[in-house]
Amino acid sequence: MPIQLFKNDLLTIDIGFRYIKVIQLRKKKSGELFIVNYGIGDTPKGCIKNGAIKDKGKVIAEIMRVINNHNLSAKEAKIVISGTNIITRIIMINSVDEDELKKKVWEDIQANLPINLSEHSVDYKILDTVTENNEEKLKVFVTAVPKKIINSYIEILKELDLKPAAVDIPSNSVAKFFKNDIVHSEVDSVVKKKKMSKVNTDTIAVIDMGSETTIVNILKHKTPEFNRVLLMGSSNIDDVIFNDLGLEKHEVSKSEMYKKMYGIALYRDLNNELEWKCSEAAKKVISEIVKNIKMCFDFYTTRCGGEQISRIYLVGGGSQLKRLDEYYEEVFNIPVFPINRVAIRGIEYNNELNTEKINYLVNALGIAM
């Protein structure tokens, strides 16, 4: 869905499994986005599953609480849909004349996507022309979202007395966000400079680590080319810490506390055995996520005709895990940047705001661009 320019302030809303993010933005004459204010609330438990809203009333009440507590006053809003019900595919179709193209694309979409087209909103983008087995083919990026899920998100905006301006999906929001220039202040490190020069392509991966899922996005020339949702996130680390430490039910909150406190230890401190145990528990989950990310990268390069990934950016609440970027950099051997540690051109913050939370806000910011 195309994003229109807005003259007045706009709200953007991103409803995740654990957190609800609401931002009030203003587009300046220069084209830059100015973040007036934002709020992050807790998604009520059991209210969202695979992107579908199960208890609309509780979700609306929490969004309203965030809006009121942070004095967010804009009346026009855009919202991000998430979940495993969103289907994205790259399909390769035989090159045809311009007047036959649309018909050919829809025929191939129907043949390749396991969906009822009448029940889904389907969009596609021609990415490139490639040669495969001496035949010229078109690389097409396809997105399909159930209409009933889109409608449920629009209903939320209407019940909040907001004017719906657009509905979008995370892969599009991420791509729009990364159209901005990223300033890599961290490349002062000799190791990062070496790794930056080793792989010289314009293809990047954005790893969005949430509570329940990890989303792998691959962008080439700032255009989305690949997207996969992995059914594992930061809350799985809590579960493993809980089990490995043999905690009792009344101690369940300790597992998340230990995860945030210790993250991934790069060496074993014999005076802090608890740190090592929690780190090893985290590594069990992260190593499984890494294995699946590598499979995504391999699939992209071998089956989608993609280039080698040159950099990884980490977004989402789970990306705050201590030393996660160093762990990823070691296993992938390419530069890894947490998004809250780089400068993004084209985005300005109200001076009173905490800019450290940008890793939570990427989807909500991207939909405004």
Topology:
Layout: E1 10-15, E2 19-27, E3 33-42, E4 48-49, E5 52-53, H1 56-69, E6 76-80, E7 87-94, H2 98-112, E8 120-132, E9 135-146, H3 147-159, E10 163-168, H4 170-177, E11 182-183, H5 190-198, E12 203-209, E13 214-220, E14 223-230, H6 234-244, H7 252-262, H8 273-303, E15 311-315, H9 324-332, E16 336-338, E17 343-344, E18 347-349, H10 358-366
Parallel strand pairs: 1-6, 3-18, 6-10, 12-15, 15-16
Antiparallel strand pairs: 1-2, 2-3, 4-5, 7-9, 8-9, 11-17, 12-13, 13-14
Helix pairs in contact: 4-10, 6-7, 6-8, 7-8
Describe this structure in words.
With 369 residues, this protein is α/β, with parallel strands linked by helices. It folds into three domains: 130 residues, ATPase, nucleotide binding domain (Nucleotidyltransferase, domain 5, 2-Layer Sandwich); 60 residues, Dna Ligase, domain 1 (2-Layer Sandwich); 158 residues, Nucleotidyltransferase, domain 5 (2-Layer Sandwich). It is built from ten helices and 18 strands. Helix 6 packs across helix 7 and helix 6 runs antiparallel to helix 8. The radius of gyration is 21 Å and the shape is globular. The N terminus is likely disordered.
Q: Count every beta strand, where a strand is a DSSP E run of 2 or more residues.
A: 18
Q: How confident is the prediction overall: mean pLDDT?
A: 90
Taking the sheet with the most strands, its summary is: 6 strands, mixed
Instruction: Identify the CATH class of the largest domain.
Output: Alpha Beta
